[in-house]
Amino acid sequence: MDNPEESYRLFERTVNSFQILNKEELRRFYTLFKPIDYSRKSVLTEAGSTEKYLYFVTEGVQRIVFQDDLGHEATILFTYQANFGGVLDSMLTGRTTKYTYETLTKSILLRANIYEVRDLGKIYPAINQLLFEGLLYAFSGLLERLVEIQCYSAEEKFRILLKRSPHILQIVPHKYLANYIGIDATNFSKLINSIKL
């Protein structure tokens, strides 16, 4: 989404869904975000670094992934159009992260320096409230995800994923969806074929 007006409208719709910022606060918040393009498989935040940015996705798909010393990967979450992104624990604590935030497809994002966001929040407390509500939403999603991982079969996780994000099969490569629900890509293909979508 190279059109700045379209990017603003998408940002505005997403932020206004929280019903917290007035027009002036929204405008000032938006001015912190600068457009940036990434090619497929670009690293936005590398494991071992500190998250310095809050992102807003206007185009493309990204994921946060953990990789162990043996190279095994665990996809933690996906971000795509109209999502805020970044490695939240590092962003909030200022500590280095264990996770990598990377693009899966060519991506266009808006990026704001987290320190500038915090400074603006001192002037406009509603921005801090927006961030807090966003964090509560993200935390709630992570709790639901923990339950899915511990309690449900691969088929049940797949059905929940499709219910939550019906369009995800069209935008995320299947090997990453397989990793997300904890099965290998071959079994994922069998799973898709066995379930009526």
TrEMBL record:
<feature type="domain" description="Cyclic nucleotide-binding">
    <location>
        <begin position="17"/>
        <end position="85"/>
    </location>
</feature>
<dbReference type="InterPro" id="IPR014710">
    <property type="entry name" value="RmlC-like_jellyroll"/>
</dbReference>
<protein>
    <submittedName>
        <fullName>Crp/Fnr family transcriptional regulator</fullName>
    </submittedName>
</protein>
<dbReference type="InterPro" id="IPR000595">
    <property type="entry name" value="cNMP-bd_dom"/>
</dbReference>
<dbReference type="InterPro" id="IPR018490">
    <property type="entry name" value="cNMP-bd_dom_sf"/>
</dbReference>
